[in-house]
């Protein structure tokens, strides 16, 4: 680019500076332009700088002194601009003011079915460096030289990376994260792990929750083991959590073992419950160690039956009438099933769902 | 959020197609519909650009994101094709020339935008840019489709490499910010102009004209 194209030149052009440092910048007008030092002024990020900080260093050179600079307002750099008296832009320089990166910390990794490795980390404690900071995850097999660089970033959040293939089992890996920006580099501590120690799997599929006959305080949960279980030698242990619909407190059932069904007891009658199951691949290749718990399955809902004989004043007015009504309804539905076609959806179950819904909307109305 | 916007918009655009009997005169039929779709696409892109430009200019920082910012257009900025043209000249453009100007402009603008995508800092910006580039690519293809259906040859587009020959990269970061500013400005101006271009073309190739012709032939 020929100098004649630019009306003025700023020095330094696009410098990188530590927070708190000072800077003297100069603007020199090109000889082709009829401007003098007194015709110029400076702005930083759109704000005019005080004339008191200016010094004319020559007939067409004006300098400005900036002291104790704060971190850059935007990562693309602060805009220091030299203007002519009428406001026109003559030249500009981007100032990158910040801090060198801190060591990344808290590196945690997991492998999905021993096929890949995903790691996440946190930036160092200070966090904000004001400069664009690049993170690179590196890994190598211990005792086997060659460093590898992870390529797929942001798969599990901003500070994460995914290694999709070519991972060896039964061998320790060294993993670390390098953070770099214009002011320097910082390397995390090295984490050592064996893929087999950080294995997780998919959540169980086909989770079904159903009533146990007419028992009003129990629900039966059934699920399928995750498909990967068949492919390699691990056992699975499961955990169930459940909660009442309008509560946020989960109850956890820990001693499910490796069964794919479980019965929840001690539940409230006529209440809707949400249930989730998760899986832990355990004793991989006979190692006796636990893996990492999978995500919870999507919540499945079911309701416990409501008893016909309700003692006490918990029911709204006309409780006795309702139980008679219910009995009659049951008889009616039984008759319908026998004599009417295409009405198989009618049944006491539907009536129960409707009662649950009624209870819910009654509560909501009271809350409002 | 964004993807729903596109989806509903495209559905609405497609649903506005006039119902016509499927007959042999499909070429001009196709052009009428394509012109409407291209018009709709420019309006959609204009809307998308408003958000993208806002985010990008905030990333560049003041004074770039100030509403009255008006930097000098240095000689180097001329490499971005300009939408502004003499009014009489614009009125006098043939359909072919009008479409070709649009096609060439957006092909080049797309190239420059793609280069931007590779350099930009934040993940959010990269995501928005990638999305916009995909839509812009759609516009280029749409214009090409209109040209083909009217029997016009496509102008020789810019070659593969992102920086067309004779366009050096900005010598410093501040000048690069200026280039980015003008790129977005020019994109905005082109989208405003294209809406007018396609409106004009719509009037010259309306579906109604085709229907009349069919009746005259006794269909």
TrEMBL record, chain A:
Domain spans labelled Fibronectin type-III: 103-198, 203-307
Q: What is its main location?
A: membrane
Membrane disposition: Single-pass type I membrane protein
Example GO CC term: the record gives: CRLF-CLCF1 complex
Q: Where is this region: Disordered?
A: 299-321
Entries under SUPFAM superfamilies matching the protein: Fibronectin type III (SSF49265), Immunoglobulin (SSF48726)
The entry lists its GO molecular-function terms as:
cytokine receptor activity
Q: Which CDD domains match?
A: FN3
> Per the UniProt entry, what are the Gene Ontology biological process annotations, in alphabetical order?
negative regulation of neuron apoptotic process
What is the protein name stated in its UniProt record? Cytokine receptor-like factor 1
UniProtKB/TrEMBL annotation, chain B:
Q: Give the record's GO CC terms.
A: CNTFR-CLCF1 complex; CRLF-CLCF1 complex; extracellular space
The UniProt keywords, alphabetically, are: Cytokine, Glycoprotein, Secreted, Signal
Q: According to its UniProt record, where is this protein located?
A: Secreted
Q: Which residues form the signal peptide?
A: 1-22
Cross-referenced Pfam families, in alphabetical order?
A: PRF
GO biological process terms, semicolon-separated:
cell surface receptor signaling pathway via JAK-STAT; positive regulation of B cell proliferation
Q: Name one GO molecular function term.
A: cytokine activity
Annotated function: In complex with CRLF1, forms a heterodimeric neurotropic cytokine that plays a crucial role during neuronal development. Also stimulates B-cells. Binds to and activates the ILST/gp130 receptor.
Subunit structure, as described in the record: Forms a heteromeric complex with cardiotrophin-like cytokine CRLF1/CLF-1; the CRLF1-CLCF1 complex is a ligand for the ciliary neurotrophic factor receptor/CNTFR. The CRLF1-CLCF1 heterodimer binds SORL1 (via N-terminal ectodomain); within this complex, the interaction is mediated predominantly by the CRLF1 moiety. The tripartite signaling complex formed by CRLF1, CLCF1 and CNTFR also binds SORL1.
Q: What does the sequence similarity comment in the record state about its family?
A: Belongs to the IL-6 superfamily.
Protein name as it appears in the record: Cardiotrophin-like cytokine factor 1
Source organism of this protein record: Urocynchramus pylzowi
């Amino acid at each position: 680019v020929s100098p004649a194209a630019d009306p003025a030149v700023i020095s330094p052009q696009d410098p990188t500076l530590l927070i708190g440092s000072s800077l003297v910048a100069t603007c020199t007008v090109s000889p082709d332009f009829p401007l003098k030092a007194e015709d110029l002024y400076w702005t930083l990020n759109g704000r005019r700088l005080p004339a008191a900080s200016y010094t004319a260093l020559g007939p067409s050179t004006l300098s400005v002194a900036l002291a104790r600079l704060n971190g850059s307002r935007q990562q693309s750099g602060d805009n220091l601009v030299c203007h002519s008296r009428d406001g026109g832009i003559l030249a500009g320089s981007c100032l990158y003011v910040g801090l060198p990166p801190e060591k990344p910390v808290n590196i945690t990794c997991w492998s999905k079915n021993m096929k890949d490795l995903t790691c996440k980390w946190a930036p160092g404690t200070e966090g904000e460096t004001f400069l664009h900071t690049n993170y690179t995850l590196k890994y190598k097999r211990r005792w086997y030289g060659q460093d590898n660089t992870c390529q797929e970033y942001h798969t599990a959040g901003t500070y994460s990376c995914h290694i999709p293939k070519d991972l060896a089992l039964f061998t320790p890996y060294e993993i670390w994260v390098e953070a770099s920006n214009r002011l320097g580099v910082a390397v995390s501590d090295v984490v050592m792990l064996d893929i087999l120690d950080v294995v997780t799997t998919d959540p169980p599929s086909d989770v079904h929750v159903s009533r146990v006959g007419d028992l009003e305080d129990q629900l039966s949960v059934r699920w399928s083991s995750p498909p990967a279980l068949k492919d390699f030698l691990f056992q699975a242990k499961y955990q169930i959590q459940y909660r009442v619909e309008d509560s946020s407190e989960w109850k956890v059932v820990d001693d499910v073992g490796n069964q794919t069904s479980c019965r929840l007891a001690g539940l409230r009658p006529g209440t809707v419950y949400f249930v989730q199951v998760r899986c832990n691949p355990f004793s991989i290749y006979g190692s006796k160690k636990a893996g990492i718990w999978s995500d919870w399955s999507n919540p499945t809902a079911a309701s416990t039956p409501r008893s016909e004989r309700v003692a006490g004043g918990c029911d709204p007015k006309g409780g006795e009438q309702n139980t008679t009504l219910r009995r009659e309804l049951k008889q009616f539905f039984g008759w319908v099933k026998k004599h009417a076609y295409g009405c198989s959806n009618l049944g006491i179950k539907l009536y129960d769902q409707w009662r649950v819904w009624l209870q819910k909307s009654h509560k909501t109305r009271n809350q409002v | 959020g964004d993807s729903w916007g596109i989806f509903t918009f495209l559905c609405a655009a497609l649903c506005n197609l006039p119902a016509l009997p499927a007959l042999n005169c499909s070429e001009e039929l196709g052009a009428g519909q394509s012109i409407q779709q291209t018009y709709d696409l420019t309006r959609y892109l204009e809307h998308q650009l408003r958000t993208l430009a806002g985010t990008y200019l905030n990333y560049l920082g003041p004074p770039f994101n100030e509403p009255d910012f008006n930097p000098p257009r240095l000689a180097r900025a001329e490499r971005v094709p300009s939408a502004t043209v003499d009014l009489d000249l614009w009125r006098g453009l043939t359909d072919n020339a009008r479409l070709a100007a649009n096609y060439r402009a957006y092909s080049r603008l797309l190239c420059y935008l793609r280069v931007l995508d590779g350099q930009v800092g934040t993940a959010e910006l990269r995501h928005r840019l990638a999305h916009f580039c995909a839509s812009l690519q759609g516009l280029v293809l749409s214009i090409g489709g209109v040209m083909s259906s009217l029997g016009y040859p496509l102008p020789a587009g810019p070659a593969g490499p992102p920086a067309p020959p004779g366009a050096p990269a900005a010598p410093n970061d501040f000048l690069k910010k200026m280039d980015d500013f003008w790129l977005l400005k020019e994109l905005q101006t082109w989208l405003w102009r294209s809406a007018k271009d396609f409106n004009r073309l719509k009037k010259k190739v309306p579906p109604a004209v085709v229907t009349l012709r069919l009746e005259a032939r006794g269909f």
